[in-house]
């Protein structure tokens, strides 16, 4: 059996140690004689797995006590609607500010418009999402119910290097593709959410970290399952939670804590990203990353080849070399290397060597 280096954007690579642990516990988790997949979510064993996962995440991210951590389903995409449904009434204006900086913020905006009086405080679409606004460009409405943004855009590969300052208006962040990549000050956010399938664990789990005072403002017409209050009051077990994904996420949190936590991750991630961008920039134009240097993502690195006729051979040869899933998103083409926490530095080194060799042979 040979594992490849998987550069997919999500579902994405998981730490080998986590997969091995899951394998070892597959048939009999800790003397229970069953897989975590088969256990009641209300049983003692699963409840202890769930509680440990939450406690470890709180330690990893330094989540303050006045925030709830919710383990939900529906993907980050469901949050695009749940956010306005739950937070619209935080102010009497019924208005919300959104930053449109890529494919995923665009989707959040489209969904938000169905519920709130939505104002775009930034829109980088004219740059084809290759730039980001600076703090000085952002003029927020002090009467807005909340501000929504996407700190890392998975497709264009742009990432904010700062947290927008929104005063007393709660800041809501879609951290799907950057959560756990570095330390963040959770207290600067009203709410953080993420689909799990990049840096957290398997698809099917959606993490929500929300400040207590933002819970309980949904209109009476909001269905129970779409109300944060329901999940907060029931420890994310109002209905059957995504129990196996929750368990794997817990193994990932434990693994990160055992390996130096988020500051160590940041150090490694920065190094991995810098060397990959350096290889692209140093290729004499054979490869090109279209993103503004200040907006480059540590997690998703898109690059184009000097001639798109080379895309097919690049993909075929890289696949043969054990470098999987490098095709760019269908909306932008070219290549994209997603280098999440679980992508070993050796994987980035192997990609760089392959790119240099390929450029030499096709240059
Ligand atoms: N936001 C971002 C930044 C994403 O990268 C993705 C998925 N790639 C989504 C939202 C949508 O997530 P989901 O598929 O979990 O709904």
From TrEMBL:
It is an enzyme of class 2 (transferase). It comes from the Bacteria. Pyridoxal 5'-phosphate binds at residues 76-77, 104, 154, 174, 197, 239-240. Residues 4-351 form the Aminotransferase class V domain. Pathway: Amino-acid biosynthesis; L-serine biosynthesis; L-serine from 3-phospho-D-glycerate: step 2/3; Cofactor biosynthesis; pyridoxine 5'-phosphate biosynthesis; pyridoxine 5'-phosphate from D-erythrose 4-phosphate: step 3/5. Pfam families: Aminotran_5. Keywords: Amino-acid biosynthesis, Aminotransferase, Cytoplasm, Pyridoxal phosphate, Pyridoxine biosynthesis, Serine biosynthesis, Transferase. GO terms for cellular component: cytoplasm. Its EC number is 2.6.1.52. L-glutamate binds at residue 42. Its main location: cytoplasm. Its cofactor is pyridoxal 5'-phosphate. Gene3D superfamilies: Aspartate Aminotransferase, domain 1, Type I PLP-dependent aspartate aminotransferase-like (Major domain). It is found in: Cytoplasm. Catalyzes the reversible conversion of 3-phosphohydroxypyruvate to phosphoserine and of 3-hydroxy-2-oxo-4-phosphonooxybutanoate to phosphohydroxythreonine. Homodimer. Belongs to the class-V pyridoxal-phosphate-dependent aminotransferase family. SerC subfamily. This is Phosphoserine aminotransferase. The gene is serC.
